Amino acid sequence: MTTGLMMERIRHAFGATEVLKDVSIVAEAGKLTCLLGPSGCGKTTLLRLAAGLEKVQDGQIYLQGRMVGDGKTGLCLAPEKRGIGLMFQDYALFPHLNVYENIAFGIRNLTPERRTWIDAGLERMGVAKHRNSYPHVLSGGQQQRVALLRALAPEPEILLLDEPFSGLDVTRRAQVREDTLNFLKECGVAVLMVTHDPEEAMFMADHIVVMKSGKVVQAGTPVQTYFHPVSAFVAELFGAMNHFEGVVEKGQLETPFGAFPIPSIPDGEPAQVLVRMEGINVSLDAHHTVPSTCRTTTGHVVDTYLLGRSSHLHIRVPRTPGQGLSDDNEIILHVRVPGVMKPEPGATVTVWADPKQVFAFALS
Amino acid sequence: MTRTLQHPEPPLYTANEPKGFKTLKFDVWAFGTVVIAALIAMPIFWVVGLALNSSGDIWAHLVDTVLARLALTTVLLMAGVGFGTFVLGTGTAWLVTMCRFPGKRIFEWAMLIPMAVPAYVIAYVYTDLLEYSGPVQGLIRETFGFTNGSQYWFFEIRSLGGAITMMTLVLYPYVYLLARAAFLEQSICVLEASRTLGKGPWESFFKVALPLARPSIAVGVSLVMMETLNDFGTVDFFAVATFTAGIFDVWLNMNSPSGAAQLACMMLLFVIVLIALERYGRRKQKFHNTTTHNRALPGFKLSAPWAALAFLACAVPVALGFGVPAWVLGSYALNFYEETLAADFWTFTFNSLLLAGLAAAITIVLGVFLAYSLRLGQVRWINGVTRFAALGYAVPGAVLAIGILMYLGWLDNTIDGWARGHIGISTGLIFSGTVIAVTFGYVVRFLSLSFGSVESGLAKITANMDGAARTLGAGPMSTLKRIHLPMLKGSIMTAALLVFVDCMKELPMTVVLRPFNFETLATFVHQYASDELLPEAALAALAIVAAGIIPVVLLSITIAHARAGHTQHVDAAPQHIPTPVQEVSP
């Protein structure tokens, strides 16, 4: 018996707008799967389809191996019969019920064990003293935790989270995220979470599904997604990158760091090399020796910005290494280095790229 | 993508088995909506059917004789009342929202009070005051020593002009209410921009504020005209030959139901125009709202003479529309209450309360059903059906009365015929001339009121509430009971009250559909006033006005709580995601 949630070849349109184009995903039991993508890529629609709040138009949905939605036959099991939990982006706490009543809403049979569970949950989430309060007096973080408890209270087989942390301000987000993750791990429930925040996905997920304009572009572990992006879109999810474009020659593409091998793209085809801002290393020593696997070049600092935990540098380098600087033949590199680094403008520096942070793709 | 799972086992559910959400073949909500809509639409269908199926000679006769006159009078009445309420409603709304003068704060809500007086009551009062034998003309004769009416000129209150004046005095609050809301919603910055661009206050009003408020004012005026078209008491009493009067005349005096039905159909054409006007206004309202945040309105400070004029402009309508009638009725009631009580006042009161209460309860249940069915949105065409069912408020009582009478008559005859044929007994009239018939009329006419209130209440609850309840295991019915109804308590109470009061005031349908010798407060007052016995019925008229005060108080409270620059306290969860704005009937 297959456990968890499985969505097969889902297509969905609102009027003439197709928001999901042949999407298949799996959220395995005991794991946290993240749908990552920009707003409007269809990830929330996918979540609503899984919950049964939207009717499947095309494709099939299985929960715990049982078919609950099928576009062909029009089967669409009512949301209340699916045994799923859904936490909304706006929490959707019932304003006329207090915290305890909200959490207990979905429990059919309020046994002593369930009462104990609620009490323990309230305690664990630090909202025990608010058990008789109404939602409007709670802070955003407290509402979030109540909503999470409410979704988990009926012991769903799968929990769906729609942008669970977007309503929280940045300073609280990291802590709530960690608490939530620990709690979910303890519960052992299969989780499908929607987010547009790659850092959140990296932190939370066992499995990341990257979506773009209604399609899955990549699915894999956080490490795979970060270090082996299948396209420039996936690579750039984690932050703006340095682009180098050109034509492949002899299986290589010229960059300021030298030629990078691109075996997958035939000679004569246009291609691009992307280097993460944090994948470029900088040394104030103009003659710094770098690991032999890394390619290096020399450049001049244009500007530096102190960002707190890291520094952002603009460094001017020649388009091809070894050539002198001239106006139409230079590139500004964007570099992120940890800690404080504030060289004077014009200073000469050594720059080299970490090959793990360099990605090559065909240029479409 | 990584596929670690093998293909799932065969589905437990197949297409033939009962299925859940949105896919039921037989859907209680859709079915119920259609049944309700059919019931509500029946009277109108009956009128149209009767009009189309009858022989043409009556129609030809009507066209030759009365039609043109009826149409002209009706148009003049509607135009007159429409214009009067527009000037009075918009003018006073502008004064109390944008100007500062003594009494402004009181007038903000006091302007609404005349709404409590039904048009027919105010008509009886002023006729009593201003007719030849009334105290005003008596005083004139006494003062100047006239001995008869030919020696001086005095206007005739029982005329078209009189009817226009009476209705304007009690209907202008509709326009006032909507115009005021529109002025409040206009960002003061727009007006300030206009002023800095060199326009004076008058020019700003006519060039900026009025055009921006136009859609709302159009809604207000169209509602006023619907009420005007619906009126029976005033035009009957004043003998102004409008369509309503014509329908009753053709029906009862010419004894021609089909002729009356044909006139009723003509009236429906007017209704269609008014609905179109109202819809136009409501559509535009959404785009003419320039505000994001209201700031407290600074207001034009008026100099003493202007302030006095503004005060009078607001005080006179309230005095004439409420003060005078209340005073006259009050003093009559004090002197003649024994006569009223002797005429079985308490029975009439009980009858009124019974009918109004019954109708309010039924409209609320049906209104909640329709609005929730629409929210579930399971079937697309439900929307159209529901909207159609909610059109009753626009159809004049006289038209509905004919339709219901004909329909119930047919129903009674059919049942009677069947019973005689099959069981050998005559059932007689089961529905016609019963409390059921009157209640049915009220429900048809006022369902839109409760539906509209419930619908706009529901629109304020985010769809995520439904989603949350459903994913937590509650079905549609359970969600309604546990989530929506508790949250809608306020809207439902308001709706019930509005329907209740409107039923208390209702005249044309009550007169036609009530059981024999069954009097309500409204029919009693109408009967006595028609017999020139207003003083003896004053207590009953006062009771109707008192009931009418309740919704006015409710509205006043809302207004007092929701001044510009203050946000209303909303006791609801954070609503980040706006629900789509739904069209709301008044």
Automatic annotation (TrEMBL), chain A:
GO terms for molecular function: ABC-type ferric iron transporter activity; ATP binding; ATP hydrolysis activity. GO terms for biological process: quaternary ammonium group transport. It comes from the Bacteria. Keywords: ATP-binding, Cell inner membrane, Cell membrane, Ion transport, Iron, Iron transport, Membrane, Nucleotide-binding, Translocase, Transport. Coiled coil: none annotated. GO terms for cellular component: membrane. Residues 5-238 form the ABC transporter domain. SUPFAM superfamilies: MOP-like, P-loop containing nucleoside triphosphate hydrolases. The keyword Cytoplasm does not apply. The keyword Iron applies. Gene3D superfamilies: P-loop containing nucleotide triphosphate hydrolases. Pfam families: ABC_tran (PF00005). This is ABC transporter domain-containing protein. It comes from Magnetovibrio blakemorei.
TrEMBL record, chain B:
The keyword ATP-binding does not apply. It holds the Pfam family BPD_transp_1. The keyword Coiled coil does not apply. It is found in: Cell membrane. Coiled coil: none annotated. PROSITE patterns: ABC_TM1. Keywords: Cell membrane, Membrane, Transmembrane, Transmembrane helix, Transport. The chain crosses the membrane at residues 28-52, 72-97, 109-127, 160-179, 235-254, 260-277, 306-328, 348-372, 384-410, 422-444, 483-501, 537-560. Belongs to the binding-protein-dependent transport system permease family. This is Iron ABC transporter permease. The lineage of its organism: Bacteria, Pseudomonadati, Pseudomonadota, Alphaproteobacteria, Rhodospirillales.
